[in-house]
Amino acid sequence: MKYRLALDLGTASVCLGAVELDGAGREKRVVYHKIKIFQEPLLVSKKGGVGATKKSGKRLARQQRRQIERRSRRYRKIAHLAPLLHLDPSKIPPDSGQRIHSLRADAATSPISLSDLLRVFLKMAKRRGYAGGFRVKAEKDKGVVETGIYDLESKMAETDSKTLGQYLNARFKKGETLRLKQAGLYAHRTLVEKEFEKIWNVQAEHHQILNHQHDGTPLKNIFFDAIFSQRPLRSPAAMVGQCPLEPTLPRAPRAQMAAQAFRIEKQIADLRWGHGHGTLPLEDSEREIIREMLHGAKEVSFEKIYKALKASPDCPERGRLKLNLEYQGREKLKGNTTVAAFAAKKLNLKKEWLTLDEMVQVQVINFLADLGSPDLVDLPGWAESFLTANGKPRVFHPQTVKFIDRMVDAGGFDRLSKMGFEGGRQAYSLKAIERLLEKMRAGMDEYDAVEAIYGHKEARELQEKLPPAGPAGNAVVDVALAEVRREVNRAIDFLGGPPAEIIVEMVREMGLGPKARNDIAIRIAKNQKERVNAAREIENHDEAATGTNILRYRLFEEQDRLWCPYCSDPIDLAGALDGHRTNIDHILPRSLTRTGRKRDQLVLAHRACNDAKLDATPFSVWGNDPGRWKIIQARAKRYEEKKLFAKAKCLLIEDYTPEVLDEEGILGFTERQFHESAWIAKKAAQWLRVICPDVAVTRGALTAHLRRIWKLDTVIPQVRLEEGLPIFDTDNRPISPEDFRRLKPHWESPPHAWPRQELQRVIEKRIDHRHHLVDALVIALSTRGLFQKMACHYKALAERKSQGERVRMALYVPPPLGNLRELALEAVRNPNLSHKPDRYPDIRFFKDNPHGAVQTEKGEMLLQKSKLSEIAGKRDSDATVLKRIGCIAAPVTREAVREAYRSRRAEGLEPHEALAAPIMHLVNKTEIVNVRLLGYGSHTAKRIEHVGRGGAHHKYLSVDGYAYLELAFKDGKPQLPPRAVPAHEAMASKGQPAPGHVRRFWKNDTVIDESDGKRYLVRQIVAQGGTLFLTPYTDAREVRDMKKADGLRKVSGKGLARLRVTDE
């Protein structure tokens, strides 16, 4: 069967839709759809937004385990060397450890036994000192380690200690802590090495065996290596993503000279004279001047570019025309930041850098990009301490080593980005970039260069199934692509073969790392806070806080709550919220891209000003009016002061010309629109070409437009009402069934046809996972031909408007399938939707702080130490605080705190203020600063036992999370209560099926309630009482945002027996 496959991909969802095609490539019917929802491999940030990857916590624990193992390995190695001193470790009597400090101190001046010397070496191997150096740090950047090392040297001089062991012994005798880090002191590795040298030389005078050799190597060298040997550092090159054009090569650092030239050529290729589709290309002479300027500076302003072009006799006169990138809010073009970094005062090595051989330059930048800490090059012989990706010693060119040493000696050496270099990696390898540069310097853009050089690779043999994508270097992308592969191959199995065509729509966040995602989340939170403040201010003035009014208010604030950008008449708050007096205006006319409410191109203007401006720029209307244009220039300057540069530039554009589209332009635009997979969809689109050569990419804006004009925006709300589920608008206000029936005709018509009073309400569709399904159906029908029809329609309307006819720029084409809405309704009512359960308890087992235990009337209870001031929070009520005070373990302390709290509350202090100051103990007459609180019974925690020098010890660790809820059955009857199984217990049976008489419920399991046949998703597991919180499996909202009326269910006890887990 010939079919087209559409993919709507997100960071936590994959949705596929397939339509059958006839012999001519026309759509016949929908033959397949699937929605897969899964969890991102990210932790929740404590500050909100996106946290680190789940792997990062495991990596940290793994690093700690490795440090412990390496230390143990040194111990074992020293113990294995004992026979070289004619010692048998098994016959050396045990020691309490209390003599070790005096032994270590004495070993540097007087003889000790060989068995005691072995103990000293073991102690030195445990804490070998800080191995880094400080040449790479500027004076202002000295940190606690360097300061601590100097402080330690001063302290040793004060106590007349010649070795670290002597100083530690002096602290031991005074009862001071021997954990130097807690005292702000640090020992350098060279200090410990000198101590070893001194101890060995002193002991060798009394023990001749220390002067012997083993297999030709002095024993001194053997023991020194056992204590101080440092592993070479493995190259991180294996973690770098592969080049999509040269798959066997890694992506190049952006700081490479070729990568800098590549970025400069990309900027030049993007430059045009003018704005919109009526732009003019640059002449070769103009390109060469701009290229030369960018290679010679870190950044170049447009003002300097215009001045240089105007001064050149080889460049044509451009008049008032400006370069297109300046219209987008940019003030400068980025130049060669690598050369600029070497030229900066911090390094001042530009001349030396430019004289290096090209191969040496490449090796220097590769090394700097791979370097973790700058301290690693701060020791003699640093070049011998690095390994390649395959574990072999890394070989550096002598000039590379010499130049790196010069960078260090310059005093400004640091991490790559902190020295002013561009961090990160280019999309391509160095080899691919160099090949592309040759074509791009000849006038091609990136797309054409890739097609010219690598286009033949698409002719490779196609595969029947989608193979693994390979690591992308990003945990979020790796997980998403694994799900894409699984679902695409299932679709191939179901439909009997690979697709004839593929169309992909992707979200921008998919390729972002956790930090970038978190930055976006923080900006969203900030924006949301501003919206809330605006809504509060609007409601204080007895107006409705609708989405449009909030936008109006925020634009009003940007205009200093006073002025119109086009005239001198003021705007007050009442006028800002009154659609009859003011309008939201697009500064620039809306183009083929159909830019909607993009804040950096919107202003709030008087209605009269907006009517006069119509579909034109401010300059074309008022540019010949000196008084009016002076006002607009002043408004632009005020926008610049508020850092709203894009608005300022839009207001002052003088050379805007109406777009002129011909048939060739439409064809060229649509072909480029659907073929830029190399850098729009990137990994997914390229990867999918393994099974299908015809892979196209569509944008979300087109999907949204088609969804609206084909009346699909109301499909999800209609089905939710049929299912008894609530629907909301984008301001989170519920929409009643009556309102939906009344407004449905308006929502299914173009916005300009809506009644003014209904423009405020827009349906929120993303509360339901099935919105991905509607998008996938639209994507499957978003063909090149369809887009060309829309572009031609736009062209016809534009021509009619240019002739003075009053027309609206409403782009409309009928859906390829006449019954598309009915097909969408049927698919949404019966969705092929599944959630990926998380049945691998790879979570933290225990909380960080251990507990003690005490016997009470209720049995053995856990104890947790807490500061008195932390018992009461700023938002806690009296009842909450008194309940916590009642958990204080010591009765006398409990009564003292309770009495003082009530007294201070009577004086008018807030709950958190009442416990901020210490309280006097009634018996001991000492200040109560810390208290011990009773927790749950000790049976809820894990008892950990170990044996130390003082005998057996034990502590309790609280469970940090539960893997699943387990319900056992006996003779077909549930055995209550159910048991919440901690993660550390679940690990014992990881990957194994549950016994036949046991039913397990994991988070994100899809369950069917056998009483009504409805499907739900397990969202939360509550250990106390064995309770599950369920939501409809189609609902995308968080549990905290739902109520019982929204479909939220709380199931416990016998109700659990009605739930059956399904993987469908």
Describe this protein's structure.
- It is a single chain.
- This protein is of the alpha+beta class and 1064 residues long.
- Among the domains are: 247-437, no CATH class; 517-652, no CATH class; 663-833, no CATH class; 852-958, no CATH class; 962-1062, no CATH class.
- It is built from 37 helices and 31 strands.
- Helix 14 (358-370) crosses helix 15 (398-409).
- The chain starts with a strand and ends with a strand.
- 28% of the residues are buried.
Strand content: 15-25%
**Approximate helicity band:** 25-40%
**C-alpha geometry:** globular
The description of the largest β-sheet is: 6 strands, mixed
Question: What's the pLDDT, averaged over the residues?
Answer: 85
Distance between the amino and carboxyl termini: 25 Å
Oligomer: single chain
Count of helical stretches = 37
What strand line-up does the widest sheet have? 15-12-1-2-3-16
Q: Compute the gyration radius: what is it? A: 36 Å
Q: Catalogue the unreliable spans.
A: 508-513, 591-595, 657-681
Structural class: alpha+beta
Number of strands: 31
Task: Offer a concise description of the structure.
Among the domains are: 247-437, no CATH class; 517-652, no CATH class; 663-833, no CATH class; 852-958, no CATH class; 962-1062, no CATH class.
What structural keywords apply?
alpha+beta, 6-stranded mixed β-sheet, 31 strands, globular
Describe the secondary structure blueprint for this structure.
Layout: E1 3-9, E2 13-21, E3 27-37, E4 42-44, E5 50-53, H1 54-80, H2 100-107, H3 114-126, H4 144-158, H5 164-174, H6 189-204, E6 213-214, E7 217-218, H7 219-228, E8 233-234, H8 257-270, H9 284-295, E9 299-301, H10 302-311, H11 324-327, E10 332-334, H12 337-343, H13 350-354, H14 358-370, E11 386-387, H15 398-409, H16 430-441, H17 446-454, H18 475-495, E12 501-506, H19 514-540, H20 547-558, H21 573-576, E13 582-586, E14 602-606, H22 607-613, H23 618-622, H24 626-641, H25 645-652, H26 663-675, H27 683-688, E15 695-697, H28 700-709, H29 715-722, H30 737-747, H31 771-780, H32 784-802, H33 820-829, E16 833-835, E17 852-856, E18 859-867, H34 878-885, H35 891-906, H36 911-914, E19 919-920, E20 927-928, E21 930-937, E22 941-948, E23 951-958, E24 962-970, E25 973-982, H37 983-986, E26 998-1002, E27 1006-1009, E28 1015-1022, E29 1027-1032, E30 1049-1051, E31 1059-1062
Parallel strand pairs: 1-12, 3-16, 8-11, 12-15
Antiparallel strand pairs: 1-2, 2-3, 4-5, 6-7, 9-10, 13-14, 17-18, 18-21, 19-20, 22-23, 24-25, 24-26, 27-28, 27-31, 28-29, 29-30
